[in-house]
Write a structure and sequence with these properties.
Elements lengths: L23 H11 L9 H15 L9 H14 L17 H14 L4 H21 L9 H28 L5 H23 L3 H4 L1 E4 L5 E5 L2 H31 L10 H21 L5 E5 L5 H8 L7 E5 L3
Antiparallel strand pairs: 1-2, 3-4
Helix pairs in contact: 1-10, 2-3, 4-5, 4-10, 5-6, 5-7, 6-7, 7-9, 9-10
């Protein structure tokens, strides 16, 4: 909208995303905007300007000549670069806008160079290093993970991915009649297994310290150790879902292309990388949108101590909300 804020009968509510987050379509639109890799090219000064616009607006201060579109562009840029709980600027490689370009290069390499041991080790190490950065950057709540936790989760996921990949490769070599496509799918199995290790280990403190739960107005009701049991499986499922199109369909497509007369082995890496990039451009925002970012849980499903605390408050809510993380 080109309408200026001074002419709005009702000012936009930017405390929530622009699109309805109670619907899959609304969440998908939101993540298509925040996961847009073009957001990575925003300078620090532009990010700070967007941050100041958003924070000032929340306090009732704004430029009356600013248009509604300009306000929402600032909010989108703010959401793409700053943590929703802490408000801190996120490390650039850990932002959702870095998912597509980074993952297309890493996954393209994993799916192309999957046969030789040094290649398998290198690409799984790179992938788990990147995943550790993303998991830490997008952790839920305000708890800081200690160095030991980060190191153990990183080692656990890397070891798990390599063990899975090498085991499957060994089995397939022994199984002489195995279809060639199965070997191309080994990286996906390793990634799925590693995600099931990495994310819970990276966020294990949430099970002891809890994550913030809020009422509908955004007031913190306390910290829940039950909510992570709902949040973390959702994140694992979404991460695995992101990998399905490019790591399952991608190899199948390349297998078909490799039979074409014009195909040469030197085309494998660039073709696989491009296929991954195209699919990730859609699977990343779609799978991020599978579950609401601010997920809900019934108060009577929380731990008893927190239930009692909430129920003692004036007009206690029946449902509370938590940030599930990404």
């Amino acid at each position: 909208m080109t309408q200026t804020l001074s002419k709005c009968e009702k000012l936009p509510d930017i405390s929530n995303p622009r699109w309805d987050q109670n619907t899959f379509q609304g969440r998908m639109y939101h993540f298509f905007s925040t996961a847009n890799c073009l957001n990575l090219f925003a300078s620090n000064s532009k990010l700070e300007k967007a941050r100041n616009i958003v924070l000032d607006y929340k306090q009732g201060k704004y430029d009356p000549n600013m248009t509604v579109d300009e306000l929402w562009k600032a909010k989108t840029l703010y959401d793409s670069a700053f943590h929703p709980d802490t408000g801190e600027k996120m490390f650039i490689l850990g932002r959702m806008s870095a998912q597509v370009p980074c993952n297309m290069l890493i996954t393209g390499g994993m799916l192309t160079f999957y046969q030789k041991l040094p290649h398998v080790i290198f690409f799984h190490w790179i992938n788990q290093s990147f995943n550790a950065i993303v998991n830490y950057t997008n952790r839920s709540g305000t708890h800081e993970s200690d160095d030991r936790t980060l190191f153990l989760s990183y080692c656990g996921a890397t070891t798990g991915a390599l063990s899975c990949a090498l085991s499957f490769n060994f089995i397939l070599k022994k199984w002489k009649k195995a279809p060639p496509i199965l070997a191309r799918l080994v990286p996906f199995a390793a990634i799925a297994f590693a995600n099931a290790i990495n994310i819970p280990m990276m966020r294990n403190k949430e099970f002891t310290n809890g994550i913030p739960v809020e009422d509908a107005a955004g007031r913190t009701m306390g910290f829940s150790t039950v909510a992570p049991g709902h949040a973390i499986p959702q994140v694992v499922f979404s991460r695995v879902g992101m990998a399905v199109p490019n790591m399952v369909l991608g190899p199948i497509i390349l297998e078909q292309l490799s039979r074409a007369a014009w195909y040469t082995p030197s085309m494998a890496a660039p073709l696989q990388t491009l296929i991954c990039g195209f699919m990730l451009a859609f699977s990343t925002p779609i799978c991020c949108a599978l579950f609401p970012q601010k997920s809900s849980i019934q108060v009577d499903h929380l731990e008893l101590s927190l239930q009692e605390h909430i129920n003692k408050l004036p007009n206690p809510p029946k449902v509370v909300y938590y940030n599930k993380g990404l």
